[in-house]
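Tutorial, part two.
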Amino acid sequence: MKHDELDKQIMNLLLENSKLSYRQIAKKLKVSAATIMNRTKLLEKGGIIKNYTISIDYEKVGFDIEAIIEMRISKGKLIEVEKKIATNPNVFAVYDITGDFDAIILARFENRRRLDTFLKKIQTYDFVERVFTKVILNTLKEQQLKFQNI
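Running the prediction step on this input gives:
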């Protein structure tokens, strides 16, 4: 489904602030609130807009360690292992990747000890051959990708 400039503008505004009302969006884009409501409902129905959420500064709420964990998984058990790891509440992203490793896990922890415990646990999982961990020292940019003008 092709999306026009108005759809992209609606999505960009919602990425900035998902609490905006249809009326507020309509005023900013100089269209009717009914148009915004109809377009937004179509974007939701099409699975383009999945959630309305907030952005949290995890460091300020006590999650001081963020890690990138690369994993090599054997014997065609990639999805099975990824699903198991994805259930951990510290894990916020799981990706299949190309290259020397099979998956990347992104996770946040309160401290080094919690990270260490998590790493030791996943290394005991069947079919996990190798784990390579990187701790993120500083985040310079992290945001949703916005749509550019056509």
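Helices lie at 5-16, 22-29, 33-45, 78-86, 112-122. In part three we will examine how such features are distributed along the chain.
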